[in-house]
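Practice problem: predict the structure.
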Amino acid sequence: MALPLAVMALVAIAALVACGFAGAVLAQRIGRSAAYAVQAAAAADAGAALVIGDWSTHGLDLLVAGDSAVLPRVPLPAGASYQATVRRLNGELFLVRAEGVRSDAAGGTLARREVGIVVRPADSAAAGAVTPLAHRAWEAR
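Answer:
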């Protein structure tokens, strides 16, 4: 009678340990995925800021309304990169869209985030400068 009871207790303890281990592995994966998402979002933000900062070097003022310019993918440290696309919406507005990607060593995508900023030519005398419009929020329904 004691042996079956001891075996049952060991099985129950093993099941508790297995569930605890599975929960710990899941929490680790969730944390790692969140870190990759943050790195991808930071790459997208950096890409948009760098494109706006180097506006005149890309010749983006020469776009006509409706045209887009896809800039080359730029690698960043820690496996992140960004690729920006600039679309001229009309004579006064541009949409800067940057996609940030966090990749693994083999080049597989771990996380991807996108940001978009609407900009217009700056009022200053600096040729080729743009300024972002005030922050606006859109809600998809």
